């Protein structure tokens, strides 16, 4: 099954830890990262556009900050973009975790997954993100 599952644990009214797991065509991964609630709300707002803008709806979280403002070490990156001329969408999920070895050792665990979905599934996911941000149930995006 092609699926993305998100669960948010608020730390306070501004920040929380996002847990993500994904499976695509037999491959899978999971990770977590800290996000500002406002960033997740903005991501949810972008998902409501129909059609999605040529620039993909994307969000990423991790450790540190690079000069461009992105996390230096990305633990979760989600990108959803138009895929074909028939209205299909492509979900790209990048998941990584802190290596269990000392810093400097080249032993990172990382998964890059992608799967197709449609606007109806995306809208159900977008709606589920609202209660999820209040510490509710998972938000699930199912592929086609």
UniProtKB/TrEMBL annotation:
**Name this protein carries in UniProt:** Uncharacterized protein
């Amino acid at each position: 099954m092609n699926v993305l599952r998100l669960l948010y644990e608020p730390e306070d009214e501004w920040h929380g830890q996002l847990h993500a797991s994904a499976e695509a065509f037999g491959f899978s991964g999971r990770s977590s990262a800290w996000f500002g609630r406002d960033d997740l709300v903005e991501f949810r707002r972008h998902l409501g556009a129909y059609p999605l803008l040529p620039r993909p709806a994307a969000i990423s979280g991790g450790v540190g900050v690079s000069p461009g403002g992105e996390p230096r070490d990305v633990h979760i990156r989600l990108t959803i973009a138009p895929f074909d001329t028939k209205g299909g969408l492509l979900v790209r999920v990048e998941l990584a975790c802190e290596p269990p070895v000392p810093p400097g050792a080249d032993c990172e665990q990382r998964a890059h997954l992608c799967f197709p979905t449609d606007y109806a599934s995306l809208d159900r996911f977008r709606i589920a993100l609202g209660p999820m941000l209040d510490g509710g149930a998972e938000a699930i995006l199912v592929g086609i």
